[in-house]
Amino acid sequence: MDEEKDALEKTKGNQICGLLVCGRGEKASKLKQRSPRTTVNWDVFKSLVGPWVDTVVDNIDEEYDRLVEYLYVSAIKAESPKVTKRRLSPQTLELIRQRGITRAAGNRNLTSKVAKRCREANKEDFKERRAAVMAEDAEAGKSIRKAQ
Asked: How far is residue 148's CA from residue 146's CA, in Å, rounded to a whole number?
């Protein structure tokens, strides 16, 4: 009778923990009790996470579209190098070329002298450009404060 009681208690314990009786005895059942197997109901998971994933994808698409639009507008507003070169006088462009040559040659003293002349020429070109833009805006009747 005691044997039947022990067997009944063992099977009840195994049923509660969802364990199978194995040949290794109590040691194996203790290990099984410590780490029960986790099961995932994927249908419930999909129903919970599905709408959230869709909104994340939509947000990413919207952000990407905004980025593309911003880059397109920026590219339109940006001036081409040809326009920038037209703003500089030929003498300044020649000084820039000479500065690159002296820098590549490694002559620091000469490079600093050419760079100084280049900065001065840039300032002069900027002043001339500024005066020309203000004159154009004055002729067009625009505000001097808003002149670029």
From this structure: 6
pTM of the model: 0.40
- Final residue belonging to a domain, choices 24, 59, 78: 78
User: In the Cβ-directed half-sphere of 137, how many Cα atoms lie within 13 Å?
Assistant: 13
Residues 112 and 123 in one domain: yes
Report helix, strand or coil for 32: helix
Residue 125, pLDDT > 80, answer yes
From CA 134, how far away is CA 126, in angstroms rounded?
Answer: 12
- Residue pair 147/137 in contact (Cβ under 8 Å)? The answer is yes
- Rounded to whole angstroms, the Cα distance separating 4 from 143 reads 105
